[in-house]
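Field reference: sequence -> structure
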Amino acid sequence: MTTLPVEKSTAISRRALLKLLGGGILVAAAGPAAIAEALSQRNRPAMPQNISAWIHIGKDGRILVLTGKVEVGQNARTSITQAAAEELQVPMSLVTVLMGDTDAVPYDMGTFGSLTTPMMIPQIRKAAAAARQQLLTRAAKTFGVSADQLTTHDGKVWAGTRSASYGEVAGGEALTDTIPASIAVTAPNEWKVLGQTVRKVDARDFVTGRHVYAVDMTAKGMLRAKVLRPPSYGAVIESIDTSAAEAMPGVKVVRDSEFVAVAAPSLSAAGKAIAAIKVEWTEKPGQPSSKQVHAILRGTSTIAHPEPVAGAKPLSATYQCAYIAHVPLEPRAALAEWDGTRMTVHTGTQRPFGVRPEVATALGIPESQVRILVPDTGSGYGGKHAGDAAVEAAKISKALGVPVSVSWSRPEEFEFAYFRPAGVDELFATFTPDGRIVQWECDNFNSGPPGIECPYDTATPRTESHQAKSPLRQGSYRCLGATFNNFARESHVDDLAHACGLDPLAFRIRNLEKSPELQEVLKAAATKFEWGQHTPASNHGFGLACGTEKGGYVATCVEIAVDPKTKAIRVVRAVTAFQCGAILNPDLLKNQVDGAVIMGIGGALFEAIEFENGKILNPRLSKYRVPRFSDIPKMETVLIDRKDLPSAGAGEVPIMAIAPAIGNAVFQATGIRLRSMPMRLPA
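Structure field:
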């Protein structure tokens, strides 16, 4: 394997950054600081509070907004554009958002946890409002009037009939002011750009195929690469013969211990070269199967529940969920280019500043010699936190000294990416005959604590998440463990309602006196669904569920149908009510809700990774069922716009309620309580 010498770090120069931004106001470098301990234990730059870190105004009056967040289908680019346009009082057409370029934008932990809306949108709004204020201050000196005599609109500062564009006022000088902590931003009831349905930025490029994803990118002299994958987890190379691959025209072989890859002029040639390698593996025997996993995760620990209080009855149950795959529309891909000093990688990731140290560590170079750029990416769902393809492409590129593209196949996505964790929930509750929850306990094993807290009124809740050793690689997923924890809780709550002889909606309302927000979405969904006004047809059932997480509140009502012969479950209708504070863009928010519901149907009814002895048994879409067009029910969405509340994220929470609503509807239709996801009725 060819290696190149590591040279001293070369940080991007002020002149180079100015060239990158095309002239005009320069983005000032933010000083290093320790990020909040609650967010990270590593020393990272804190969120800069100088205007120029976020807002760049060119001499032509065009505005560049910079953010470490990335676009993975949640339409963050559009909402950030709206936020800047709102506070700068300019048309959206004047605003461009630069995202996820580690050389140019402020440090950001990553695009996850529905944090873009509650954290980045306010930051951009404050920066834009402060920029507008500084422009007014500068223009006041030019016009010889006080700033309060000036107005702004359409990218200009006006003094009566006289005007100057933002570009003229800025004059190529940086807006160096610090963003005041007390800077006023536009109140939601006065929004003119935010709060409106506007078309997705660059939508035409996506629907016409003009947008360039990481897999589409090319560079002069670029080679396409494939990585040799083991036949099972934990397998190691016993012997290897790469001579046949090396004899192929244009093929180069790279090996670094267990890492073996080939690079060729085309992807098909690289595939043939990988297939030509003769390798003997030593595999790890005795690995568990998906049929054993829940017992393994649950372990042998004993959970002691308290005695029911006087007059209360106990109810306990165990719930399970399978590992599931993210199945992003765009599989992992990266284009890496080593120029002898620095490594530049274009890749689809949710964490460009997280991938940068991964690449640096793999190459043995300082982070300052690595630049990560993220083109708008074809979804992530929490599955693109790691830089797998970026690291692979970077290692091969540095070894060969040429640009290298790595793109994962769909089977590689299934076999070597990480999964949503499998899990077990043990629930214990006591209730009174008049329908009051008295005690509540939930023990989660492996899938994590998000969404585990009980929102229902009870004086003695206890929730605990227990770690377990996962047999498969696992990680983040849309709404993390909240989807499963909410499935378990809402299924159990439904059983409590039936045990009391109460309507499931009435039972929930009775026990949510301390959560008016959940009551609000429950009533909104139930009203739209006309809950309680109709009786389901034969083999049909109605169900509802609710949930809260990350500042959002969701409730879903469904109608399902069960095929009397095959026992297949089909969702006929789904009504979802969602509240996430002040709505930034109604149409884009509805898209997020509808997408979450459809994705949730997959985890509820179809999706499960099957594995045995270190091998994934269903690594193709022909074997791993995701929702199809024929699975999409009639969908109705109720958006509750609370302009009196801060805007919360919407990419995750709407997925929480669909699975338990389906399970509750199946129980009504069949009398069978399904406690495992995916839910399947016995034939």
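Note: The longest strand covers residues 552-562.
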